[in-house]
Amino acid sequence: MEGGAYGAGKAGGAFDPHTLVRQPHTILRVVSWVFSIVVFGSIVNEGYLNTPSEGEEFCIYNRNPNACSYGVAVGVLAFLTCLLYLALDVYFPQISSVKDRKKAVLSDIGVSAFWAFLWFVGFCYLANQWQVSKPKDNPLNEGTDAARAAIAFSFFSIFTWSLTAALAVRRFKDLTFQEEYNTLFPSAAQP
């Protein structure tokens, strides 16, 4: 068995972008990043309407400004979270301590599960508000495709974040095994 912490065979070595891009959790994180851009971009660009008779804009989701605000807030914060954890994915191979790796993976589990929950709430909220929207509020069907796209990509984001959490659980199990192996066979951990 290779020495060092799980995945740390090259700790302190050169950064390998090819290996990073091929990892499933990195791919899922990039997909989640794109989905978050679609959600907040759709709502920001076409989620607000106004009529000639009214001077103020209103949210396309049942005239509920909280629905648009929630979608934008979750989308932007998920975007930033993806960037943060992509940076952690880049830095992860340089972490040589198993305890520090476990902390990073535990935070990934918690944050990914939390975001899966937030996207579930967002999907339910946006879909409900879209369902009860009145056709008279938008007679020309302006922005309907963007509203539906935000709902659809909120739904897809539930699965990408859930899978990211599941992959983090698997990484945590691998780290725990490596830590126990190093405790039982300390001579095998030395190169």
UniProtKB/TrEMBL annotation:
<feature type="domain" description="MARVEL">
    <location>
        <begin position="20"/>
        <end position="173"/>
    </location>
</feature>
<comment type="similarity">
    <text>Belongs to the synaptogyrin family.</text>
</comment>
<dbReference type="Pfam" id="PF01284">
    <property type="entry name" value="MARVEL"/>
</dbReference>
<feature type="transmembrane region" description="Helical">
    <location>
        <begin position="30"/>
        <end position="49"/>
    </location>
</feature>
<dbReference type="InterPro" id="IPR008253">
    <property type="entry name" value="Marvel"/>
</dbReference>
<dbReference type="InterPro" id="IPR016579">
    <property type="entry name" value="Synaptogyrin"/>
</dbReference>
<protein>
    <submittedName>
        <fullName>Synaptogyrin 1</fullName>
    </submittedName>
</protein>
<dbReference type="GO" id="GO:0031594">
    <property type="term" value="C:neuromuscular junction"/>
</dbReference>
<feature type="transmembrane region" description="Helical">
    <location>
        <begin position="104"/>
        <end position="128"/>
    </location>
</feature>
<keyword id="KW-0472">Membrane</keyword>
<feature type="transmembrane region" description="Helical">
    <location>
        <begin position="69"/>
        <end position="92"/>
    </location>
</feature>
<keyword id="KW-1133">Transmembrane helix</keyword>
<dbReference type="GO" id="GO:0030672">
    <property type="term" value="C:synaptic vesicle membrane"/>
</dbReference>
<keyword id="KW-0812">Transmembrane</keyword>
<feature type="transmembrane region" description="Helical">
    <location>
        <begin position="148"/>
        <end position="169"/>
    </location>
</feature>
